[in-house]
Amino acid sequence: MTGARRLSQAISEGDxxxxxxxxxxxxxxxxxxxxxxxxxxxxxxxxGVPECGLPVLFxxxxxxxxxxDAGADACLIVVEEHDDEExxxxxxxxxxxxxxxxxxxxxxxxxxxxxxERIDPExxxxxxxxxEDDEDDLERILDLLPDVPAGKLAIADLCGATRDDxxxxxxxxxxxxxxETKKIxxxxxxxxxxx
Length: 195
Fold this sequence. Notes:
Radius of gyration: 16 Å
CATH class: Alpha Beta
Number of domains: 1
Number of strands: 8
Low-confidence stretches: 191-195
Structural class: alpha/beta
Number of helices: 8
Shape: globular
Oligomer: single chain
Helix content: 25-40%
CATH topology: TIM Barrel
Distance between the termini: 34 Å
CATH architecture: Alpha-Beta Barrel
């Protein structure tokens, strides 16, 4: 099943911003799907998650083979962690050979430019790490967005996003937001789930 579902297609289709839910198990995946998530993310292999109908992003900077073995459809590459020689390009080629989409984890203009020059990914995960002390995570992500070229997909790494954050990200042109919350329906604009 790996590679059969395209994360890029799931987050670029339809109207509005997509929600990618970070889940730990099949039950969490099912709940996220029922509440309107359009993609899932896992940090480790999670039995039952790949069998759901949504594309799965392996959310850890691990070898592509680990993501593939976990049943993921896309793998994360933290660009700044792979500055040496040809390592970034090698990871990219290995992931492509396995049928995985690449999501470039970037946190500043330099990492965006490096990823574009070296592997030209279609999907960027905009990370707020290394934000200035007076800059919140949402502002940091919004500062990165103009550096993502038109035609590329941008995912905001905003695990604790609120509905207002999601609306703001959508208005600025972000394609998806990666969240940890269990209140997916509220984030996608539905009624909050019953307690």
